[in-house]
Structures are given as structure tokens and as C-alpha cells.
Amino acid sequence: MSGNIFGKLFRVTSFGESHGPAVGCVIDGCPPGLALCEADIDAELARRRPSGHAASTTRREADAAEILSGVFEGKTLGTPIAIIIRNTGHHSGDYAELAGLYRPGHADWTWEAKYGIRDARGGGRSSGRETAARAAAGAVAKRLLSQYNISVSSRVVSIGGETEESAINALFERLRAQGDSAGGVVECIISGLPAGLGEPVFEKIGARMGSAVLSIGGCKGIEFGSGFGAASLRGSKNNDAPLRPPAAPDRPSFGSNNAGGMLGGISNGMDLLFRAAFKPTPSISAEQETVGKNGAGQRLVIKGRHDLCIVPRVLPVVEAMAALVCADLLLEHLAIDNGKRLI
Q: Can you point out the beta strands (E) in the chain?
């Protein structure tokens, strides 16, 4: 199995399955001298962990990061940083009946078609549990970006088409009663990015960011700035008028940010802004039709503990992938810019 390594200079290898002993990551390329401790990582893991939210799974994991290498006396060494997050709250027995079935909306069918074998316990590597490793790696990337006053934040735009909290909570109550689920949209903003990150052809910053965010399980689409809305605008309305020239000593400014912080595939110094859409959680308790390995059709009720909607918990994961892209691009930019001191 390939495709578990992300990045060029700031490289992350993710490993582990949903019901295995642990999930984790190895980060290669983090500069030395960066202040880092397990508490920095735990803070991001806590945001991803179920916290009694109406939409969250009842699976409870401590999600305590263990740094195995790459850090000494609170500072990164420049060597590979290995981080593990142990799995302690899994109930593998909940999936015993699913080993011979293909769950609707899951990767069971495609996984088996590709590899000829799959881990039916919670989806194995295709489970959302894998994103804990991303959140851990993203915490390190955020620490690096903070040295350059670059910040990454996100928010929920809508869930199931609803935008108000009261309506969303009412939706969750209905979904729980119906045994159903919902999707939603999140928005992410990266502030403080310098102009000049990204390349103008195949390595556009939007292409790199899009690939990263779309790699998150359940993500079905991404748009930058005015996004799909730009298709119905006139150029006179969609163009962002410069207020200061790029050669100005301070950061360039534009009258609007329909471009989402990039022009020609290169960051323009404005906030990089995108929105990502996530599908409804495929594990639902309502009865569904499916087939087994023997080809026979049957009715299926998925047991276990699952989110009604992954959107509230996916925010730190989206931020993590955004931070990993920006850290990678920043190191590339600094490498070209005469190797400026990194930390």
C-alpha cells in the first residue's frame, strides 16, 4: 500500500488502523530548534476528540500524544519526529457481523477490490480514526508557522443546509431519532502568508491545498475565495483591485479577496481562504440495503458508535492539512530565498 506520505520538504508519514494498537506519524524535515512538547499536540487532538457534542460518537479515546524521537529538552533536533496516539476505546466486536458485508457509502468494496483483504474493524485504515495522526502532524506544522506569524483557523459554515446553532441542534435531534446523518461545509482561513508561495503551473498553491484537503475522508469538494460563485459574476465584480503595489515595503493589499489569497497559483499576501464540503457520515443506524461477499442481498443495520455529522470534529483536521501545505511551501520558499535562518 502506497500513498501514506505527504509533503516534499516537510514530509509526514501516517500509520495505524482504527482498532490497532495505535495510530501515529513520522515527521521528516522539521527544522531544529523549534519549541515543541506533547501538550502542543494534545491541544489539537483534544479539538478532534468527541466531547459530548450532540453530533459526536460515544467512542472515547484519551488521545494523548507520545513523542518517541526528534525532540530533546523541549526543542526539535532536526531529526525525524515520531508520534504515536494509542487506541484504547475500540470495540472490535461491534464489527463482527460486517466482515462479510459491504457497508453502503464506505470503502469496503473498493478496498477489497484493490487489495483483496480488508480490516473490517471500524474500517481499518480508511477510518476517520486515521485523522488523529494528521492532527498531530498539523500541530507541529502550526508551531513552525507561528514563528513566522502565520495562523490557521476554521469554522463551521453549515450542517445539513442549516446555518444557525438552534436549527443545527434541532437537526441533530431529528437525525438521532431517525438513525440518519448529515454533512456540512467548513471554512478555513490562513492569515499572515507572505506573497510568493506556490508555483504558476502544476504546483499552484490552490492545487497543493486542494489535494491535501480532498485527501481527508468524506471531503467531496473545495472552493477558494468566491469559489463556484465566481462563475455567475462579471469580471468587473470578481477582480480584486490592488490598493498597494506588490513592491511596497509592507504587505500588499486588495479591495476584496475573491481570489482567496492567490493569483496565478501564487500567494498574494492576503488571507488564503477556502471552503470544503463533507458528505454525511455513512455509518447510520437506519436499516439499509446491501450485499454480502456471496452476492446475496440483505438488510443491514450498522451497530457501533458513530458521529451524526463529522463536521464539528473535522475542523482541526482541515486546519492540519492546511498547515502542512503551508509549512511545506514555506520551507521551499525559504530554500530559494538564500537559505534564511528558519527558527
A: 5-6, 11-16, 22-28, 65-69, 71-72, 75-76, 81-86, 151-159, 184-191, 219-224, 262-263, 266-267, 272-278, 288-291, 297-300
DSSP per residue over 36-100, as a string?
A: --HHHHHHHHHHHS--S-TTS-S------EEEEESEETTEE-SS-EEEEEE--S--GGGGGGGTT
Model confidence pTM above 0.85: yes
Q: Can you tell me the distance from the alpha carbon of 197 to that of 333, in angstroms, rounded to the nearest whole number?
A: 6
Among 42, 31, 33, 38, smallest CA distance to 75 is for 33
10-residue stretch averages of pLDDT, the chain, 343 residues long: 93 93 96 97 93 59 92 98 89 66 87 85 83 97 97 98 96 95 98 94 97 97 97 96 72 89 95 98 90 85 83 97 98 77 50
CB neighbour list of residue 91: distance below 8 Å, 6 or more residues apart = 59, 304, 305
In order of 100, 290, 298, the CA distances from 294 in angstroms are 8, 12, 11
DSSP single-letter state for residue 264: T
The 3-state DSSP class for residue 217 equals coil
Query: Alpha-carbon distance 33 to 5, whole Å?
Result: 24
Residue 264, C-beta contacts closer than 8 angstroms, at least 6 positions apart: 200, 204
240-278 as b/e, with b when 16 or more CB fall inside 10 Å? beeeeeeeeeeeebbeebbbbbbbebbbbbbbbbbbbbb
